[in-house]
Design brief:
By secondary structure, the protein is α/β, with parallel strands linked by helices. The protein is 44% helix and 17% strand. It has 10 helices and 9 strands. The strands form 2 sheets. The protein has a 6-stranded mixed sheet with strand order 2-1-3-7-8-9, with helices on both faces. Helix 5 packs parallel to helix 6. The longest helix has 26 residues. The N terminus is likely disordered.
Length: 295
């Protein structure tokens, strides 16, 4: 009997999915998790070391040195693409401002050692409390990238193939509102349905971009992807000092649309941007430059 080619293809696809699921389960069983007390203590120590490193660097700099903090949170362990996103963002920001300091949280599926603190809601709360204190002590600029899977009002947290309480709009808004009003904030959300966050999170001195509209998926989160399509296109050649935010957003959106058409992804993700119009006209060299000191 001759086997139908279409059924053969479907069977192979199902086998690949099953094999990948079994692999993730086996890795998750031996991966490091905050449910293990010793591992949580290690994560706490790694986070404390990062916070102390920021303060140590600032003590060595002149008082008027531009203070720019990057917070990267890669929140899903089932793909390395999220960690690649925050590392690429860190590299891109340091090209604008060499003095940029970074706080990196990542839920990479670890099996041997923990390289970064866990990207969990309690750890983010701890970081934002410190950021708030810093912002009230001196002029500061903050760039945030959260990269993960998502649902409406949900930025997933997955560690060792297990789900933890997700990040939602309310706590993220509360954290941002606790920053000093002079703090210039760039918030990038790379997740499906991330547009569900943007209206609630916009505010003065804020640039908010999301990978998708409130009712759409975003793409590029497969394990073998270099970056999510949103971040890969955002940080392309147009992410340059003389580009305005409108330039960057338009180029990113066009690049994402082309990828979606090429790979027949539908409906389109429809990335979003929220900010005052005058801020969108600012060149990146000015936006990421030294902020004006305010009382």
């Amino acid at each position: 009997m001759t086997e139908h080619p279409k059924w053969t293809e479907r069977l192979l696809h199902m086998c690949r999915i099953l094999a990948w699921g079994l692999l993730l389960s086996s890795l998750g069983a031996c991966a490091l998790s905050p449910k293990k007390e010793q591992t949580q203590q290690l994560s706490d120590a790694l986070l404390q070391a990062q916070l102390q490193q920021v303060q140590a660097q600032w003590k060595q700099e002149a008082a008027d040195t531009h203070k720019h903090v990057f917070l990267g949170s890669a929140q899903h362990s089932q793909s390395l693409v999220f960690q690649r996103d925050i590392l690429l963002m860190q590299q891109s920001l340091q090209a604008f401002q060499a003095s940029t300091v970074s706080i990196l949280l990542s839920n990479q599926l670890e099996t041997q050692q923990l390289r970064y603190p866990f990207a969990t809601v309690p750890n983010l709360d701890r970081v934002f409390k410190q950021l708030s204190a810093w912002s009230h002590a001196h002029p500061m600029q903050l760039t945030i990238l959260i990269s993960t899977h998502g649902l409406p009002d949900v930025l997933s947290v997955n560690i060792a193939n297990q789900y933890f309480p997700p990040l939602r709009t309310a706590p993220l808004k509360a954290w941002l509102d606790q920053l000093h009003p002079r703090t210039r904030v760039t918030l990038l959300l790379s997740a499906c349905y991330s547009g569900s966050f943007v209206d609630a999170l916009q505010g003065p001195n804020r640039m908010v971009l999301s990978a998708s509209a409130a009712d759409r998926n975003s793409f590029g989160c497969r394990y073998n992807e270099k970056n999510t399509w949103f971040i890969g296109q955002l940080l392309g050649p147009h992410f340059a000092p003389q580009s305005t935010w409108d330039d960057v957003f338009t180029a990113m959106r066009t690049g994402v649309e082309q990828q979606e058409l090429a790979e027949r992804m539908s409906p389109p993700s429809n990335p979003q941007i929220r900010s005052a119009e005058n801020l969108r006209k600012m060149r990146l060299a000015e936006w990421f430059g030294k902020p004006i000191s305010q009382p």
